[in-house]
Design brief:
The protein has 187 residues and is mainly α. The protein has one domain. It has 8 helices and no strands.
């Protein structure tokens, strides 16, 4: 069996994986400066970003990092629900901020930083979690597919807290408040 070629050279992926947090700060700064929200953009973008945040929260409540293979909840639909949630949240906030430039900036950052990080994580998970290769063969990488027979949704608030996903909620609240403030007082 021939090994799959990697999307990105490993040295590049290793370098940029460490830039995820920095890229987040760049996005926050760009968001603060370049957003120009309107009532209409807030009505469209905030629900989309909130959906992304909900996907992240749902995923965090199913993830015991490096301990066991997560296959329940959103992990039955996509192997990377945290990244999918990040993508939805950022694109929703860019829409709420009424800024195509922010959407393009995040799209570029996602392609150049987050996709290589996903690939590195895939390699890591294949090496430490039995069953990951079979799981990856049946569950899509990023864009979700609703599986047949997805049963009741279990959720662990303990895992949610352990994964510190409340930090994303706090950041979203601050971002939404900034957009609303900016739309009302700094049109």
């Amino acid at each position: 069996m021939q090994a799959r070629r990697h999307w990105f050279p490993k040295a590049y992926a290793d370098q940029v994986a460490r830039l995820r947090v920095t890229a987040g700060f760049v996005m926050v700064a760009a968001f603060a400066v370049f957003s120009h929200p309107t009532r209409h953009s807030l009505e469209i973008g905030l629900p989309v970003s909130l959906l992304g945040l909900a996907v992240r929260a749902w995923a965090a409540g199913h993830l015991a990092k490096n301990e066991r293979l997560a296959v329940s909840g959103p992990y039955a639909c996509t192997r990377n629900p945290l990244y999918l949630g990040t993508l939805l949240t950022a694109m929703g906030l860019a829409a709420a901020g009424h800024s195509a430039g922010l959407a393009v900036l995040f799209g570029v950052l996602f392609a150049l930083i987050y996709l290589p990080a996903i690939e590195l994580e895939e390699q890591h998970l294949k090496s430490i979690l039995p069953g990951y290769v079979a799981y990856a063969a049946r569950v899509p990488l990023l864009l979700p597919r609703w599986p047949e027979g997805l049963g009741p949704v279990d959720f662990s608030f303990a895992l949610y807290r352990k994964n510190r996903e409340y930090q994303a909620l706090a950041g979203w609240i601050l971002g939404a408040a900034w957009l609303i403030f900016r739309a009302i007082w700094l049109p």
